[in-house]
Amino acid sequence: MTIRHVSGEPGGLRELKKRRTRTALLHSALELFTTQGFEATTIDQIAEPVEVSQRTFFRYFASKEEVAFAVPDTVESHFFDAFRARPPAEPPMTALRRAMRATWETFGESVEGVSPALHMRMYQLIESTPALLAVLMCRSAAMEERLAEEIARREGLDLDADPRPRVLVAAFTGVMRATGRIWGAGGDTSAASLRRITEEHLDRLGPALVTAWDRPEPGAGAAGAT
Amino acid sequence: MTIRHVSGEPGGLRELKKRRTRTALLHSALELFTTQGFEATTIDQIAEPVEVSQRTFFRYFASKEEVAFAVPDTVESHFFDAFRARPPAEPPMTALRRAMRATWETFGESVEGVSPALHMRMYQLIESTPALLAVLMCRSAAMEERLAEEIARREGLDLDADPRPRVLVAAFTGVMRATGRIWGAGGDTSAASLRRITEEHLDRLGPALVTAWDRPEPGAGAAGAT
DNA sequence: TTGTCAACTGTCAGAGGCTGACAATAATCT
DNA sequence: AGATTATTGTCAGCCTCTGACAGTTGACAA
Q: Is the distance from CB of A13 to CB of A3 less than 8 angstroms?
C-alpha cells in the first residue's frame, strides 16, 4: 500500500525527496551567488552543502545559468498567464500593464521557498553579471516573441506582415529593461521601489501607444483588425 | 632600417603577420561554423588549418563567440558612427534609418576579407544557434543603450527621467530584429532582400514615431528640449 | 652585422562546465 | 519478499579557457 504522509503536496516519497533536493540546490546556489558572485561559485560548492554529487546537480538543472533563472522563470510564467487572461477588449498595452501589476501582487510571497528579498538580490546580480545578462536578454527576446504572437492573435493581425505587435512589445519591454537598470543602479532596492519606477515610466508612454497603436494604421495602407 | 613592403597597409612585418593570422583564424572559423555548425566546431579544428596552437587562438579572440561576431562588430561600429554623423536637426528615427541605409551601402564589399555571402550565412547561423543568439541579444542591448544615450544627448534629454529615447530605440531595434527573423526564415537570402524587408517594415512605423516622439511629451508634465 | 629588447608563440598543466556509461542504492508495485 | 523502476554516485572524458614559462622571431640601435 502506498504511504501518503500528511505533507501538503501530492506524490510519494520519491517525489518529495526530489522536490527537497531541488529546493535545497536552488537555495544553496542563490545563497552562494549573492554572496560570492556567480562566476566565483562552482558547481561543487553548490552541491556540497546539499550533500549531493556534482552529477546530480546537472540532473536537476541543465546548466549553472538555469538555476539562477529558476525564480524569474516562475514569475515570467505567471506574467504570461496573467496576460493571456486579460479580456480581449483591453488594448494590448493596457493588458500588458495590468498583467504586470497582477504579477507584482502575487509576488510578495516566496516562490519555491525563495524569499522576495532574495529575488531582489538575484535580479541585481543578474543585471551586474555579463554572463547572466546575456542569458536574460535571450530569454527576454523569446518572451517578446511569445507576447507579440499573443497580441497578433488577440487583434487578428498577421505577425509576418504587420510589425506593430512586435514594436508595441518592444516598447513595453524596453521600458521594463530601462526601469530594471535604473532600479538596479539606485539605492532603494525594495520591490515597492521597482514597482513605483515601473508605473511612472509606463505612464509616460501611455498616451502615445495606447491610443495610437491598437487602431488600424494611420499612414500607409495595410490590413488591420477593426 | 625599417623594411616597408609594398603591401597596402602600414606597419612592419610583425603587424602584417598578426593581421594574416587573425584573418586566417577568422576565415577558418567562419568556414567551419557555417558548414558543421557552431557548437560542433572545436577550437582545435579552427586552429589546425592555420597551423597555430589552440592557445594562440585565444590570444586573438577572447572566446569562441567573439570570432563569430567579428564581422557584425565591424558593421555595428560603422552603423554607430554613421548615426553620430547624422545632422542634429533630423528626428532620431529618421537619423537611425538613414544611418542604417548608409551602412547597407558600404556593406557590399568584403569586411576583413570576408565576403558578403559569408556574412549572410553567418547571420543566419547566429539566428538559429541558441548560444549565439544569446550573445547577439546581449550585444543588441548594449547597442540600444549607447544609441539611447546618443539620442538623449542630441535632444538634450535626461535618460534617467525620460523613457522616450530608450523606447524609440527599442522600437527601432525591435523592427530590426523582427525583419532579421523574417528574412532568416524566408527563402530569399540575399542582402537586397534583407534591405527591402527592413525598409518596408520601417515604413510602417514611421508616421507614429517620427512625428510623435521627437516633440515634448503630450501627456504628463516632464522636462524636454524644444 | 650583431646584440639587445620586446613581442609573439608553443607547450604544459590545470580549473571548471558538462555528458555518457555503468553500477549501487532506494522507492514503488505485485 | 521479490521484481521493477527511478535516482544517485563514481568514473572517465571532452571542451573552453587561463596562467606560467621558455623558445623563437621581428624591431631597432650601435
A: yes
Could you tell me which residues are beta bridge partners of residue A114? Answer: A111
- Residue B150, all three cell numbers: 546618443
Contact B174 A166 (CB under 8 A): yes
Nearest CB neighbour to B205, from listed A133, A144, A163:
A163
The mean pLDDT value for B52-78 works out to 95
User: For chain B, what are the domain ranges?
Assistant: 13-63, 69-213
User: What is the C-alpha to C-alpha distance for residues B183 and B124, in angstroms, rounded to an integer?
Assistant: 9
Segment A168-198, tens digit of pLDDT: 888 888 888 878 878 777 778 787 888 888 8
pLDDT at A25: 98
Those residues whose C-beta lies under 8 Å from the C-beta of residue A59, and which sit 6 or more positions away, are: none
Looking at the complex, report in whole angstroms how far the Cα of residue B117 sits from the nearest Cα belonging to chain A: 25
Among the ranges given (A55-59, B27-31, B88-92, B168-172), the one the predictor scored with the smallest mean pLDDT: B168-172
CB pairs under 8 A between A and B: 108
Same fold? A13-63, A69-213: no
Q: What pLDDT is attached to residue A32?
A: 97
Give backbone dihedrals phi and psi of B86, rounded to 5 degrees, phi first.
-70, 145
> How many residues are listed for chain B in this entry?
226
**Cα distance between residue B125 and residue B135, in whole Å:** 13
Look up residue B90 and give its amino acid.
E
Give strand pairing partners of B114.
Answer: B111
Q: Which of B138, B172, B202, B210 to mutate to test the interface with A (most CBs of A within 10 A)?
A: B138
Terminal CA-to-CA distance of chain B, rounded, Å?
60
Q: With respect to CATH, is domain A69-213 assigned 3.40.640.10?
A: no
Q: Look at B220 and A203 and tell me if their CB atoms are within 8 Å.
A: yes
**CA separation for the pair B79, B66 (Å, rounded):** 19
What average pLDDT does chain B have? 83
Q: What kind and span of H or E run contains A31? A: helix A13-36
The CATH classification number of B13-63 equals 1.10.10.60
Residue spans of alpha helices (H) in chain B: 13-36, 43-50, 54-60, 64-68, 70-84, 92-105, 116-128, 130-155, 164-185, 191-213
Does residue A50 register a pLDDT over 90?
yes
Q: Length of chain A, please? A: 226
Handedness of CA B159, B160, B165, B170 (dihedral sign): positive
Q: What is the pLDDT of residues A105-128, one digit of tens each?
A: 887 778 888 998 888 889 889 988
CA distance A133 to A136: 5
